[in-house]
Amino acid sequence: MTRFVVDCGVALHLASERIEVPAEHELLAPTLLRSQTLSALHEAVQRGEISAKVGLERLAHIWAMPIRLLGDAVLRRRAWDLAEQLGWAETYDAEYIALTQLQADAFITLDTELARRVEGIVPTAPIETLQTGSRRASPSSKQR
Predict the structure, then answer these.
(1) Which of 91, 97, 115, 121 has the most crowded CB, counting CB atoms within 10 A?
(2) CA distance 115 to 128
(3) Rounded distance, CA 20 to CA 5, Å?
(4) How far is 93 from 113, CA to CA, in rounded Å?
(5) How far is Cα of residue 21 from the mean position of the Cα atoms in its chain?
């Protein structure tokens, strides 16, 4: 089983495209994923990009996904330390990176700038990896 940390953008993409992740991939995210997806979908409704019905359907799809949400004290402390080390004012992205370091094989994000910023810190993998089964994913970075 390959364990991937997925961020808000990935969860939203999986929901909007109705992508089913093969069972041999385990998805992880910090607990803040709940609030981020809720806010992102509500904002999309307010901007008129999607209807409230679609937003609520996508939200229900995300909540039904087998994503293990974690947010213990060790993760929060590691996120704090990473944000300090990397010079990041906010700790949101650092929670995803800390979780990858602590629990996962690779981090998946659609945010190309974030992927660039974490090169050499955590392994990353493309979102297409989640659509393939029966193969071990090949993370793009080997350092942890």
Answers:
(1) 97
(2) 15
(3) 16
(4) 11
(5) 13
Query: What is the DSSP code (8-state) at residue 19?
Result: P
Where helices occur in the chain by DSSP H, the ranges are 8-16, 32-46, 52-64, 73-86, 92-103, 112-117
Please give the pLDDT value at position 133: 58
pLDDT tens digit sequence for 61-120: 999 999 999 999 999 999 999 999 999 999 999 999 999 999 999 999 999 999 999 999
Helix axes 32-46, 8-16, angle to 10 degrees: 60
Residue 68 backbone phi and psi in degrees, to 5: -80, 120
For residues 26 and 120, what is the distance between their CA atoms, to the nearest angstrom?
Answer: 22
DSSP category for residue 31: T
Q: Packing angle between helix 92-103 and helix 32-46, nearest 10 degrees?
A: 140
CB neighbours of 50 closer than 8 A, spacing ≥ 6? Answer: 41, 44, 58
